[in-house]
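User: Here's a structure from my thesis project, written as structure tokens. My advisor, Dr. K., wants to see whether a designed sequence matches the one we expressed. Can you design one independently, without my sequence as a hint?
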């Protein structure tokens, strides 16, 4: 029987990669250890399997052979398209009454909302009242008036909703 080597000799990336790159001797050693582990596992499995009772062994047996399924002929594209179109039209015909009611409710609601207050104004028109000479050569005492006039739109509510 093959025994596993001690855990202190396990090869890792830190052991294999040196300053000059991968050390091939360590890589070969890692491959040999992996081969030994596989051989050990195979022997252990064979021993375990030999000790099983016949009824326990049956779950590990391969399944019985069976024939491949027959090839199923699929309908052509246009036939499937015709079936699906017919099915969709039957469903649409069954739902025509509820769809008509839903559409009518939405149309009436949109008309009612727009008729309540007319067109929505997005912003209020408020032009600053600042003389041209003050804008061209402002004095320090005029700055507060200029800023108040220029940014007065931010102090008022801009959007007017209907209702």
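Assistant: Designed independently from the structure alone:
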């Amino acid at each position: 029987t093959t025994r596993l080597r001690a855990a202190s000799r396990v090869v890792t990336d830190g052991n294999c990669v040196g300053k000059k790159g991968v050390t091939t001797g360590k890589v070969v050693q890692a491959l040999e250890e992996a081969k030994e582990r596989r051989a050990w596992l195979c022997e252990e499995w064979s021993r375990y399997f030999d000790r099983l009772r016949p009824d326990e062994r049956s779950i590990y047996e391969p399944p019985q052979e069976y024939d491949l399924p027959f090839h199923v002929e699929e309908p052509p594209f246009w036939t499937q398209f015709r079936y699906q179109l017919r099915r969709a039209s039957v469903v649409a015909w069954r739902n025509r009454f509820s769809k008509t009611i839903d559409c009518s409710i939405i149309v009436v609601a949109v008309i009612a909302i727009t008729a309540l207050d007319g067109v929505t104004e997005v912003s209020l028109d408020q032009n600053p009242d600042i003389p041209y000479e003050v804008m061209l050569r402002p004095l320090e005492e005029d700055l507060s008036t200029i800023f108040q006039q220029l940014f007065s739109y931010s102090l008022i509510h801009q959007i007017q909703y209907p209702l």
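When you compare it with your expressed construct, this may help: The longest strand covers residues 17-18.
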